[in-house]
Amino acid sequence: MRTLIAAAAVVALSGCATVPEGAPTLAGWHCAAPGIKTAQYGGGDVAAIQLESDKQEAVYTVTRIDANTARGMTRNGTPFTCRRA
Questions:
Q1: What is the pLDDT of residue 11?
Q2: How far is Cα 1 from Cα 83, in angstroms, rounded to an integer?
Q3: pTM of structure
């Protein structure tokens, strides 16, 4: 089921342009992490994150901390935080 959700997120996010660190992502969210290259997050259960060391974006599960903050971790252990602008 988680794979299906992640695949659906990739399809949904694939049409979105990537944005540099600090730029608004979907629905006015900003994501930050050490070495972040691009991020897409719209307030749901997953975010698409690309670090400078990655060849492409990957989809990661996030944990909503509150209405304005979500956190996750990339496969190499880099934590990221997405905040509503």
A1: 41
A2: 26
A3: 0.70
